[in-house]
Amino acid sequence: MKRISNCIIYTLATLFLAINLSFAQNVHDSLLNLIPQQTDNRSKALIYCDIAKYAERFDTITKYSDLAIEYAEGDAEIIARAMAYHAFVAGNQCDLEKALSLYNEAYELCKDQKKSLLPSKMLINAGAVLEEMNDLQGALQKYNQALDLSISLGDTLVILSTYKQLCQICAKAKLFGMAVQYSNAALELCRTIKRPEQLVIVYASKAMMYDRMAETKQAIERDSISTLAIAYCDSAQNVIERTRCDSYECQLSLNHTYCVKAEIYIHQANVRSQNVDSAKKYLDLFNHWIHRIGDSIYIPMTTLYAAQINYYQGDFKKAQTTAEKINKDKLMNRTQRISYCKLLIDIYSKLKKNDKVQQWTDSLTMLAYDSRHAIELGHIAEAHIQRSFDEIRKKADAEKEEQQAIYESDITDKKHKLQGVITALCICFVLVIIVLIYSKRKKTMNHLLEVKNQTLMQKQEEIIQQQSVITAQKEKVEQYNSLILQSIRYAQHIQRMALPDNDDVMALFPDSFLCFMPKDIVSGDFYYVTRCGDFNVMVIADCTGHGVPGGFLSMFGISAISEILARQNNDVMPGRVLDSMREFIKDAFTDDSDIDETGDESFSTADGMDMSICAINFATREIRFAGAYHSAFVWSQGNIRRLKGDRMPIGRHIKEDGPFTTITDTLNPGDMLYMMTDGIQGQMGGLSGTKFMTKRLLQFFTENATLPCTQQKENFENTIREWMHNTIQVDDMTLTGIRMLSRIHYS
């Protein structure tokens, strides 16, 4: 019973601490007064640990950590926790050697607790201190030791966190091969856990890793790695859109990808004066997030980026105004402070303010000194604030005494007014009698009104009953509609699972994009990718109809094409695949027949699909194409040529006149291959009232073929939305673009 009572006291005390910590200066002493004298020392030690955990002042953390150690009665876990809080204070006071020693000592105390996560946390904290001391090899050793402990415990979330930590330290140490291995291991484990927020976090970590890797490269190689970083940013966004994940972790990682894109585009603006608008776009998105959640820690960093964008746009005065808003002491790390000083030197050089150039050159030199003086100034400012609070408290006490004097004076005045109040009450009594007489007369008149109101109420009840019947029928219809919509949305989920995900597409076609825009919830279009021997195969198909019928037929088509392509060898011929697909569809719809007017059996020609298949050998740059009512387009050195497919569909058709034709061609590095469904050309424009047509599509290819594939995708989506304006989408739309690479590596 005593142990249960102590647990309740500990829980209530901890809750009281969490609620009141930010409201009272003496909250810690108030909390301790709640602890009964009979409470055992271990419970007291746990409470002291929680006070140290939630305290903001370093002296408070130190005080209660010492008390926790004093009352721990040799409990290794409590002592290790308290020592970790001491190490936290030492690290924030720039005494990294002491912090490292305390973390190591805490680990030695708790390392024998086999079923606890505390030893792993101590190792990770020690690794973080070593990383701050720039001992990257020692930090890597600690993280690997923490990984071994996490694996022995079998906690997948802890293992995943350790993988991500190892990925970051390897990227910082420029061990990018190991960083890629750890990030891939985290990705595989994340797919096992099947939690979308963890997958988004891993994608964001890979994007940041490739961004750091790109900083060490030059020219074209740097652009290629930056493209990978942007691709993983897009993958994180796609997961959020596909799973509709709205957790804080997902949104935080998504906005970190905005920050990564902004950094990449700012660098490109510095090197080639390109993508300044894209940098501003993603910086605005990141700024919107940090202002919405009230996280001010990133504001100096984003303001620095904004000043750099103004500088690259040539608006040096605006860049100066923006940069001067920044408190350089609040920048997140020394690298950003150095960038801040260099930016001001460049700005004042452009504005020809030599004295300012010399001032910020000196500031850049001063960044090499230790920051302990700033900590001492912080303590002085803290003492000054405490004195201000004391002055405010004295002023409040004086005002309280003054209000007390006024209150006593008011009591004297009220005594004099009491006689007047009694007189007023007598007058009110007379008025009440008059009102009662008037009310009696009014009651008689109200009775007559009630009779009329009853008649009106009866009619109103009849109307309400009719309305309730109508409302019930409306609710029933809405319920049916809701059930139907839920079923269709689940069908969309099933269809999305059947389609290849973005990772599969990027694995086979690293420099490519895919725009998949269904008209309704489920789509009659589908796509499929696979590898047959030395050839990477891309399939784009448009089934008869759209919506639910088209969705059912697309699922049938995905199953069929995957089965047919699985039987292909290295010498895959797209024309033969289309022949096999046509026979498969015809056999499947053998029973789809009617009896015509003459009594003969006739088959429907409406069931089928249009399809294009392209097989690419990146080693030899050979492509093989075949189309059923589909064509493809190749952009090469400013010219576009058409790979024309056969004018017959997959299925029964009156124009079925032989096997499908396979077209072979050879592409040069940098050439673009485009495949699409006819929903794009047939889309009506909201302003013009005409179709988009192939001519506009070819013009888009000509203007955008040299851009990165991610930019091409974004430009196409913007173009088609502007074309549609307020017009509804008339059909499913699918477009893919593939760039011929000079070489490609598979993992």
Task: Detail the topology: elements first, then pairings.
Elements lengths: L1 H19 L6 H7 L7 H14 L3 H14 L4 H17 L3 H15 L7 H15 L3 H18 L2 H17 L3 H18 L2 H19 L4 H25 L4 H25 L3 H18 L5 H14 L3 H8 L10 H17 L3 H13 L5 H127 L3 H7 L3 E6 L7 E8 L2 E9 L3 H20 L7 H15 L4 E3 L5 E3 L5 E9 L4 E7 L3 E5 L2 E5 L19 E4 L5 E5 L16 H12 L4 H16 L8 E7 L8
Antiparallel strand pairs: 1-12, 2-3, 3-6, 4-5, 6-7, 7-10, 8-9, 8-11, 11-12
Helix pairs in contact: 1-2, 1-3, 3-4, 3-5, 4-5, 5-6, 6-7, 7-8, 8-9, 9-10, 9-11, 10-11, 11-12, 11-13, 12-13, 13-14, 13-15, 14-15, 15-16, 15-17, 16-17, 17-18, 19-21, 21-22
Question: Can you summarize this structure?
Answer:
The chain is of the alpha+beta class and 747 residues long.
Describe the structure.
- By secondary structure, this protein is an alpha+beta fold.
- Among the domains are: 437-486; 499-594 and 602-739, Phosphatase 2c, domain 1 (4-Layer Sandwich), CATH 3.60.40.
- 66% of the residues lie in helices and 10% in strands.
- Strands 1-12-11-8-9 form a five-stranded antiparallel beta sheet, covered by helices on one side.
- Strand 6 (609-617) and strand 7 form a beta hairpin.
- 34% of the residues are buried.
- The model is unreliable at 1-27, 369-389 and 594-603 (pLDDT under 50).
